[in-house]
């Protein structure tokens, strides 16, 4: 499903999505195709559900957005890592 379809089906709602097709472009993660997991009226509930899904299926990409956003793009942070003590 494309973002404009999601916006049409869920106007002014919070949605949790699973990225079906996504790619990185510089420091942005762009989601091109997605599946709707759940709809919410409250952002904190959407974030909670998104975190639960990410913990239970770490190889999948889950995000939550408000459908008023014009695009689905996520700013990526580069993982630097943690150094252990010697």
Comma- or semicolon-separated keywords:
86 residues; alpha+beta; 4-stranded antiparallel beta sheet; 24% helix; 38% strand; globular
Structural description of this entry:
The chain is an alpha+beta fold and 86 residues long. The protein has one domain. It has 2 helices and 4 strands. The longest helix has 14 residues. The radius of gyration is 14 Å and the shape is globular.
In brief:
This protein is of the alpha+beta class. It has 2 helices and 4 strands.
| Number of distinct beta strands | 4
Global mean pLDDT: 92
Gyration radius from CA atoms, angstroms: 14 Å
Strand content: 35-45%
Biggest sheet strand order reads 3-1-2-4
Count of alpha and pi helical runs: 2
Shape verdict:
globular
Largest sheet: 4 strands, antiparallel
Structural class category:
alpha+beta
Uncertain runs? none
Range of helix content: 10-25%
Question: What is the H/E order?
Answer: HEEHEE
Number of domains: 1
Distance between the termini: 49 Å
SSE diagram, text form:
Blueprint: H1 3-9, E1 14-25, E2 28-40, H2 43-56, E3 62-66, E4 73-75
Antiparallel strand pairs: 1-2, 1-3, 2-4
């Amino acid at each position: 499903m494309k973002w404009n379809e999601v916006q049409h089906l869920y106007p002014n709602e919070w949605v949790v999505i699973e990225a079906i097709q996504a790619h990185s472009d510089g420091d942005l993660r762009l989601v091109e195709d997605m599946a709707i997991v759940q709809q919410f009226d409250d952002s904190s509930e959407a974030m909670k559900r998104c975190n639960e899904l990410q913990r239970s299926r770490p190889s999948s990409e889950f995000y939550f957005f408000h459908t008023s956003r014009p695009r689905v793009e996520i700013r990526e942070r580069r993982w630097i890592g943690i150094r252990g003590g010697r």
